[in-house]
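During the no-cost extension, the postdoctoral fellow (Dr. R.K.) reprocessed legacy sequence entries with the updated structure-token encoder. One reprocessed record is reproduced below for audit purposes.
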Amino acid sequence: MSDPRVAEHMPLLTFSWDERKAKEFVAAKEACWRRDGLGHWAFLCNDVYVGWGGFQKEGDEWDFGLVLKPESFGLGLRITRHAINFAKADPRIPIVTFLLPPSRLRLRALVRLGAFYVGEVDYEGARFRKYRLETG
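Re-encoded structure tokens follow.
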């Protein structure tokens, strides 16, 4: 996430990475698994790490996030489709939300997947476009 091409789409990334920050970040993501029984995964393509993402409980909603290495940006739709299929098969996830920064301009694929625009929201001091997808 220290690559500027990735960081430009992450408005909450307001710090520089160091070993302490990386450990805190991983611990926070692992805590999601302990707390909610679901969280983030590493994504591989042909046994090569391409990024990470998954579901994180935000209040009563499950938000899906995805962070890919720049050379893997083209895999986003395919990975998101797999995640949506996972959500549809999991009774805990009746709704998936997507919080997208204003820098993300290509949103048609998300709409084609069935998500609809909810509006702009403030999350931890940053503005995001919120989309929602019903899985049931």
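The chain is about 30% helix and 35% strand. The chain has one domain: 4-134. The remaining legacy entries will be reprocessed before the final report is submitted.
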